[in-house]
Amino acid sequence: MKGHGTIRLILGALLAEAWDIQRSQRKQEFNMLRKRADTFEEVVTNEKARGGYFATCRLGTPGQNLTMQLDTGSSDIWVPSSRAAACRQTQIGDEGCSFGSFTPSSSTSFTVVGEGDFDIEYLDGTSSRGDYFTDVFEIGGATLQNMTMGFGISTDIDYGLVGVGYAANEAIVGSTRSSSSIYPNLPVHMVNEGLINTVAYSLWLNDLDASSGNILFGGIDTEKYQGDLTRIVIYPHQTNPDIYTGFYVALTSLEAISSSGRDTLTSESFPIAVVLDSGTTLSYLPNDLASQIWTEVGAVYSSRYQLAVLPCSMQHSKGYFTFGLGGPSGPRISVTMDELVIDLTMGEAPTFSSGQYEGQDICALGIQNFTSGPYLLGDTFLRSAYVVYDLVNNEVGIAATDFNSTDSNIVPFPSSGAPIPSATVAPDQSEVTDRPAYTSPAFEAREGFQDASENENAAVGLAPAFGTVIPLFRHLSTKMRMIRAVAALNSGSAVGSRPAVRYAGLACRVAAINPPAAQCYSSRLSGLRYFSRSPVSRASSAAEAALKQAKELAAANMTPEAAAARMTPEEKKRLSMLRNIGIAAHIDSGKTTVTERILFYTGRVKAIHEVRGRDGVGAKMDSMELERERGITIQSAATFADWKKTENGKEETYHFNLIDTPGHIDFTIEVERAMRVLDGAVMVLCAVSGVQSQTITVDRQMKRYNVPRISFVNKMDRMGANPFKAVEMINSKLKIAAAAVQIPIGSEKEFEGVVDLIHMRSIRNDGQRGINVKVSNAIPEHLKELAEQKRQELIEKLADVDDEIAEMFLEEKTPTPEQIKAAIRRATISLKFTPVLMGSALADKCVQPMLDAVCDYLPNPSNVDNTALDRSKGEQPVNLLPYNSLPFVGLAFKLEENPYGQLTYIRVYQGSIKKGQYLFNSRNDKKVRIPRIVRMHSNEMEDVTEIGAGEICAVFGVECASGDTFTDGRLPYGMSSMFVPESVMSLSIRPKRSSDADAFSKAMNRFMREDPTFRLHVDEESEETIISGMGELHLDIYVERLRREYKVDCETGKPRVAYRETITRRADFDYLLKRQTGGPGDYARVMGWIEPNPENPETNKFEERVVGGTIPDKYIAACGKGFDEACIKGPLLGHRVIGAKMVVTDGATHVTDSSDYAFNLAAQMAFRKAFTEAGGTVLEPLMKTTITAPAEFQGNVLMLMNKRGSIVDTEVGADEFTMVADCSLNAMFGFSTHLRAATQGKGEFSMEFSHYAAAPPHLQKELVAAYEKELDAKRTK
Ligand SMILES: Nc1nc2c(ncn2[C@@H]2O[C@H](COP(=O)(O)OP(=O)(O)OP(=O)(O)O)[C@@H](O)[C@H]2O)c(=O)[nH]1
Ligand SMILES: [Mg+2]
């Protein structure tokens, strides 16, 4: 059958014309060359715009050229009439279809044999009707007299078809037409005419990027496949075992394989009768199997396109599927992802407008679902399988296609009924009747499928040495790789696209304007065609059903208003007492120390242990051995606690979920994800240093996720402590209104407590570890004036951000403590203000008032806006409300492996979950059972049976990715993901002992799963495993963890910098690619210029300004892809090129030798050649480096810095100075040692990526020379 799911486009007449001329000239040559005795070979061309393989045929006397689709799913040849209405759309000149159509009056041998008897309809609802006629038909050099064919007078398909299926499947069979008997169709006629020996042929479609393949009548070509050709039986007609109607074979297994593992996918329907159908663009499998495939690749169902779609970039995924046919010992065909990601359009690809793939190009997945048979293996499968169709023995021979084949070794079938040459029969085919139990796979491979990005930092799977084999990719020659790489960019991006050539609708929408789906797929099948089941059922696929159900639900009594009205007073109370908070700040400001006090005062820990404490125990929240040793936090840790707050003599219990985050920039992702899910934060500042470099980073993160904060100035016991400086710095540097709500009583060593400016009272700590809080209405006499002044400042600041206070201020009224508190709460929650508290965690002073402030000023879950994206409404944002009675929506924000298994942290946004309940991952609609729910207390956990709306918990046994949304299946919601910063540093790594390879790859997989800023890839050239991350410390920690947690000692290379390349001025190019290699050559000429991209120095741009069509559009797209490809590996160092623009203005083509490939290559070469002239430059990352050290070392530090970068700012405090410099990352390796030496170990520094800038000339020279040497070494190897 033809084109189910075919993407058809109305091609411009120009393009079609060029194509036709080219094809007919080539064909003549070809036929003369390739004709062999007993076999006939015809080149078939992959017409992506029409979703099928086309051959050029000749009809009539004299011959009329027609380009016709080759279809193993039907059995008739038919041609459209030149007068058919469908042809008017694509007409060239006055008459005819662009792919050719038939004019009977111009043929002297035309004879009508069945007037009005021809009537065929295909599975996608398209049809053709008219007469049967006989005439001369030529294909592949074979001429057939009196071939019976259909004449499509009334058709909605504008090209002819050559059906090569069983004759018993002809449209006429079983119909009530006057001459309803079988006639010899093409393969049978070829045998009857003595042209071939048996009714059999082989089909080689080659890979998606190759534009052509071939059909070989009467033989096989042993050069076109790899491994053994295996024979399996074709299923006969269901009710009559003597009749064969289609190429039904048994699909008996399916495996998904990627770098992260391998899954066996199962189906209720195994063994599945699948039709091998070259006329179908995509493949269609039963729902249960298709949905597992979608889960593996992260495809989503688009109701707009009525297809499972995925980002086009998934074509780079290194995962693949292995199809097992004909039982356990039958042929196995692997289909890689680059064969399964199909462009939706020939022009600009549509993009996801929201959701997890927002902004990415949309492609169709090559495997779709049908709710019932016939299931089809179409071109997306057949390209990877070399198939021999033996219609006499009712067998097919299958082997993996050799994409790389350039040779031919044709073996004809010796006689009629001879078995397929060189093929062995699959044993145990009878075992295919065993139906395996349907089980949900663990989706081990899913993670690996997602490794689809193509940049140098991307994880593209582990080196084969570490247990991952990536077949198919490994035997490719260099040329093949080139060609594949072209396709790798084949995402229909904006390059040179003509807006007119766009997505034109699926299957049957060429002529009709937006027909409803049901109409589109309606079945009007005539005759006894066996593919008669209407795919209307497809519209009610599982995914759509879920969306429909969700819509109904929304309409029902599930509105937030309805839920709010139903909310019980207990639930209202529960919510108002809940706080989800994070502690975030600059390195070493005392976050973990503060958290330890919180745990102690709330009774969660019995004793306080210090970070780097003498007792050697370490703080509760720094549970990792490495954290305790180094005295730094590496991973954020979650805990929960109940805080009893007393207000006006009344005690109330608040429930806190709390996350302590690391301060070091290398672990910034931990802060990022905490901020993504928390409702409020405590920003800790050092009383001496105030706002520091990391405070600024953390501030940015809080702002990114709209997180309200209170500020806590810690270390008030330190020499030089000055909380007011910190307040001033928050105002000036973070640009957020801040005012102290306390002032210190005593300072430095004499620091004893604070004056609460709101109630004008003093607060001191008392008892063991300050466990008691003593409040007194007496303010020390010497502080009264300062307290009044600071209270006034607080009110004035509030007046700036709060209308109510502003009004009172104007009216010169003094607000009451309650009014002040209410105003602070309003202003804090609306992100306009932060109240500043102070104390000393280490000295156990004034932590409790900070906890009261968390209750007073930070929001409860119902005070913050959390939104999800409604997939059923084009990803429209919808508010989530933390009511238990609403359907469940939660976000998995962090994954962690612990001794008990995979732990997933979930923030529950609405609804609740119970232990044992099922949830659905909204990314892939996969259902998971939640066997265990816990609340985390650092590395310990407490089991709970239920968790309510607004809470944070962790669950076991859930396979997902960080950032996945879970629902209870009632809402089609997803949530936006978080920001993941770029990594700037990488190093090569290798386990010292080869026996550690398994443990190494296990560890790496885990680290990547847990930490999105940690990436791994294998350098294709050196085959080295390269890890990359946020900095030296980040990578160091992982190497150390490998050693400790996995007992794997590693050798690491020198840390490397992620350089970039760019151009600085315009340079013209005129490049001619002309190669002749015996067969068809390569010819492309491109002219234009390259220049720095004026719009964005970080991105590249391709522009087409060709006038007069010297380069046709399709080659323009190839040029664009060539440019993109050239930018991946820059000419200077092989690093990515950024900020370049290529403009193509002119060029030339050759009738036979020009191709996408040639233009792609020409554009690449042109770019590379012009690069030097355009001032090609190496860019290096500059790091914003902040150094703080005692003032006496300023001179030393200045000397250190002079060599490394330019100083941006220096601030000299009482006894410390802070220097900010933009430094070359390259110069900063080993800096900590130098800084330690220069400051007697008292200096500190932090580093954060700032921007890319030109590397100094001497460094560029050095780098380029080293790269060239490396290349030379490789060439001579
Ligand atoms: N003098 C003084 N030192 C403190 C205070 N609070 C914490 N420290 C010390 O500061 C150092 C860092 O404390 P941590 O609690 O680990 O700081 P952190 O912010 O959690 O550090 P990272 O998580 O690594 O960013 C430790 O040596 C603490 O003992 C304080 O109030 N006063
Ligand atoms: Mg810490």
Automatic annotation (TrEMBL):
GTP binds at residues 585-592, 660-664, 714-717. Residues 784-811 form a coiled coil. CDD domains: EF-G (cd01886), EFG_III (cd16262), EFG_mtEFG1_IV (cd01434), mtEFG1_C (cd04097), mtEFG1_II_like (cd04091), SAP_like (cd05474). Residues 1-18 form the signal peptide. Residues 53-399 form the Peptidase A1 domain. This is Elongation factor G, mitochondrial. The active site is at D71, D277. Mitochondrial GTPase that catalyzes the GTP-dependent ribosomal translocation step during translation elongation. During this step, the ribosome changes from the pre-translocational (PRE) to the post-translocational (POST) state as the newly formed A-site-bound peptidyl-tRNA and P-site-bound deacylated tRNA move to the P and E sites, respectively. Catalyzes the coordinated movement of the two tRNA molecules, the mRNA and conformational changes in the ribosome. Catalyzes the GTP-dependent ribosomal translocation step during translation elongation. During this step, the ribosome changes from the pre-translocational (PRE) to the post-translocational (POST) state as the newly formed A-site-bound peptidyl-tRNA and P-site-bound deacylated tRNA move to the P and E sites, respectively. Catalyzes the coordinated movement of the two tRNA molecules, the mRNA and conformational changes in the ribosome. HAMAP family: EF_G_EF_2_B (MF_00054_B). It comes from Parathielavia hyrcaniae. Keywords: Aspartyl protease, Coiled coil, Disulfide bond, Elongation factor, GTP-binding, Hydrolase, Mitochondrion, Nucleotide-binding, Protease, Protein biosynthesis, Signal, Transit peptide.
